[in-house]
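Weekly modeling sync, notes
Attendees: S.R. (lead), two postdocs, one rotation student

Agenda item 3: backlog of single-chain predictions. S.R. asked that every request posted to the team notebook include the full sequence so nobody has to chase files. The rotation student volunteered to paste the first one in as an example of the format we agreed on. Action items at the bottom.

Example entry:
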Amino acid sequence: MKHIKIIISIISFFIIIFLCNISYCVQKKEGIQNFPDTYKPYLQELQKRHPNWTFAALYTDLDWKYVIDSENQFGKNLVPKSYSDRWKNTASGKYNVEVDAGWVDSSRRAVEFAMDPRNFLNEVRILQFEGLSYDEITNNTQGIEKILYGTEFYNKIVDYLDSNGKKITMTKKYSDLILSAGKTSKVSSYHLASRIKQEVGPFLSHKSISGDVEGYKGLYNFYNIGATSSSEPMGAIKNGLQYAKDGKGASAETKNKYLIPWNTKEKAITGGGIFIGSSYINIGQNNIYLQKFHVTNSGNRIILASIYDKCTRPI
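Predicted structure, as returned to the notebook:
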């Protein structure tokens, strides 16, 4: 199994012993010994099973009540309407009010559960804390192929359609493009491979990457960036392909940065990776948890932004 670095955010109730030049600071300390005692038994058990995993504690120096108060705002964190009442906001006028179709406001208890890393210290759930930056030592095409196994991307030479419908065949495999995208974007190539599987599924025929959608021929969006929902048939896919075409009105500087238009699969995979890195991973939101609950700092400001609208279902 590949080397994994787990960085767990700790909402600190106490003053960090190191002096900081600003009122808000983050301290990252590697090693299980740097975690509070309530974390250690779980992490020690995981270390026994996975000796190549390394753990780093991220001390945010934030007050727990302040964090929960900031996240427990109506409409900020949602759960499916089908959940039991203990996970839903039951306050008058807010109970079962659909903020999004089928989704309602979560309870304070649900937010507290989702934000406490100690509830997820098992072999599966802890992977939300896996570091997602590119690692030259551990990232390789063999590892990417293992992730792609069982899909049509596996061990597959890349071909695609240009805007005229002509088939272009490359000499590289999808794993080669994903590895290169990781290097360029500074995002884990394993994360990019996993995101592609999550967003477009196992089939090359997915309309976001088929290159044959009328009005968007020869365009590709492997991460469904900008694919906002729409009542129009295939509306979300078309919105994503519109982003692939022109960045939905983005500036020339932004389009150049993200390699837009995504009129080859290589540009789509790499440019989308740069987008993911620039928007999240390379600015401190280096794992899935921090992309949901942004408790790291940006400059000298505290940000508690919910990047995704919907909570993962609690255990």
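Discussion: group reviewed the output briefly. The chain has a mean pLDDT of 87.
Action items: rotation student to repeat for the remaining queue; S.R. to check formatting next week.
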